[in-house]
Specification:
Blueprint (H helix, E strand, L loop, with lengths): L12 H36 L3 H28 L11 H23 L1 H11 L10 H15 L2 H6 L33 E2 L34 H4 L9 H11 L3 H15 L1 E2 L1 H6 L7 H7 L1 E2 L1 H15 L3 E8 L9 E10 L2 E5 L6 E4 L2 E4 L6 E3 L1 H4 L3 E3 L13 H6 L2 E2 L1 H5 L3 E4 L4 E4 L2 E7 L5 E8 L5 E3 L1 E3 L3 E7 L4 E10 L7 E10 L2
Parallel strand pairs: 1-7, 2-3, 13-20
Antiparallel strand pairs: 4-5, 4-10, 5-6, 6-9, 7-8, 11-20, 12-14, 14-18, 15-16, 15-19, 17-18, 19-20
């Protein structure tokens, strides 16, 4: 050691370990970014039926091809300089930084290009590369992937404006039921499309920090016939919604059937405003306006039911969220519906979807009781409230779970059908789409398919039996909607009971 020289500083073992761990974490982060990009791009490709090889190729480009090419180009330029400056970073550090920069740009571009569908794609098809694989590691990997997708829910909510969320009905003070605590969530909507589609649309009350509402079990499914009191409302009574509500309440002492009478009046007397829904420009949806014009979208139906419940002494809440209709996206769109409190239990109601459906912009009146106090697990197959407590479930599902679950209507369950396969809202096939059902009650099943966004339908082959097999020969590459219809008898109208989105590869 030279005289006057300073001793080199020694690094403590603890500091060395910390530096090493930080470096490992840094490397893992940089390596994870390309994997995240490939996962996002390939899931988008699987969801939209695009070429997954292109997504995988893009992943290879962003690690390692482009970082290495960038480094090679920088080295070539440096070799042409007369007095190159000393390098500060090592070769490995430069590769890592180039990889980080390129992949941040790649992920940013994906977010900007497809913000609305990225969450849906990751939730619906984020496990596409595990299809057909089995084992504990597969289940664990799938859970991890979907848990990661769930953390991106904010992206979906930030880019899917719900026009009904801030438009909430105000109490008029005429209710005798104010003693019952009514939690207040948020709305959504759109009417059914063609062969028994249904709708979604507007507002809801602000939730207060109250316990989760307790679900009740009513008498669902109800017979599809209007309550007698609704059929005999005197003309002089129909001058005000309060008068109608009090009249119906006076004619029905049973608390469950009283709610049915209110539901039936709203579903029967109000026509869905298809023109406004298609134009996405809504006139006032307050209860008085909807009652007087006899027209509204989902928010209007739900607000009117709240107001009539208030006048009849029944606690009815306004609920907002998302619902999935025929021909729509598997993630759904904004909608509004209701929950009614009867004997201390809450029941879910959607008078909008029980009123009829849309054929184009035209409303087709078709009263039903499908969504009148349906069990929460049945109602929740195509309704997801913004407030989890309005799922009325001890174990609420996530938005990702909602996206993945098949879009089945209450009639599917009411007819005793059980879905065997597929268990997902969207699947990919090579040519033939196959649906397997348990059909213990011997229901007559019909099925058809149509290309997404098209109107021409084709029939599927149905093999009846206790296990019913539906086979749809998809003619070309593309995305299709496979729809199921059921009836007690082979002749007569078959009601729409479920739908699957199917991608056919080349």
């Amino acid at each position: 050691m030279k005289a006057g020289g300073a001793k080199p500083k020694k690094t403590s073992p603890a500091a060395a370990v910390i530096v090493f761990l930080l470096r490992v974490l840094w490397v893992l982060f940089v390596v994870a970014l390309p994997l995240a990009g490939v996962w996002a791009a390939s899931s988008l490709a699987a969801y939209s039926n695009g070429p997954r090889w292109a997504a995988l190729l893009a992943g290879l480009c962003f690690f390692p091809i482009l970082p290495l090419a960038w480094e090679a180009f920088a080295a070539w330029r440096r070799s042409r300089e007369k007095n190159p400056k000393p390098r500060i970073l090592t070769y490995g550090d430069r590769i890592l930084l180039r990889t980080l920069g390129l992949n941040l740009v790649f992920l940013g571009a994906l977010l900007l290009a497809a913000p609305k569908v990225l969450f849906t794609a990751l939730s619906a098809r984020g496990d596409w590369f595990l299809e057909g694989a089995k084992g504990a590691w597969v289940d664990a990997t799938r859970r991890a992937l979907f848990a990661t997708a769930d953390r991106l829910e904010w992206l979906y909510l930030a880019t899917n404006e719900n026009p009904y969320r801030d438009d909430q009905p105000k109490p008029t003070g005429s209710s005798t039921s104010s003693a019952a605590p009514v939690p207040t969530p948020v709305p959504t909507e759109k009417p059914r499309q063609d062969d028994k589609p249904k709708r979604q649309d507007e507002p809801i009350p602000e939730p207060t920090p109250t316990p989760r509402p307790e679900a009740g079990r009513a008498r669902w499914p109800f017979r599809e016939e209007l309550h007698p009191a609704v059929l005999s409302v005197p003309p002089e009574v129909e001058t005000s919604l309060a008068a109608v509500a009090k009249h119906l309440a006076s004619k029905e002492p049973d608390p469950v059937l009283r709610v049915k009478a209110l539901h039936d009046y709203v579903a029967d007397r109000i026509a869905y405003d298809g023109e406004s829904y298609v134009a996405k420009r809504y006139p006032p949806q307050d209860a008085e306006t909807v009652f007087s014009t006899r027209k509204g979208v989902c928010a209007g139906y739900a607000k009117l039911l709240v107001a009539m419940g208030e006048a009849a002494g029944v606690s009815i809440a306004y609920v907002v969220g998302f619902s999935r209709d025929m021909g729509g996206d598997v993630a759904g769109e904004g909608h509004a519906w209701n929950a009614a409190l009867v004997d201390g239990k809450w029941y879910l109601i959607d008078a909008t979807w029980d009123a009829g459906y849309l054929k184009g912009p035209a409303f087709v009146k078709e009263y039903s009781t499908d969504y009148l106090m349906a069990p929460p697990e049945v109602f929740g197959a195509n309704h997801l409230p913004d407030e989890p407590r309005w799922q009325l479930s001890a174990t609420p599902i996530s938005r990702g779970d909602f996206v993945r679950q098949p879009n089945l209507r209450p009639g599917f369950h009411a007819k005793g059908l059980v879905l065997v396969d597929p268990k997902r809202s969207q699947v990919t096939v090579d040519r033939e789409a196959v649906v397997t059902l348990e059909n213990p009650n011997g229901m007559s099943i019909l099925a058809d398919f149509e290309a997404k966004g098209a109107t021409q339908t084709s029939r599927c082959q149905v093999t009846p039996g206790a296990t019913t097999l539906v086979q749809c020969d998809l003619p070309a590459e593309g995305t299709y909607h496979v729809r199921l219809f059921a009836n007690e008898a082979r002749v007569g109208s078959h009601s729409f009971v479920g739908q699957f989105e199917v991608n056919r590869r080349k």
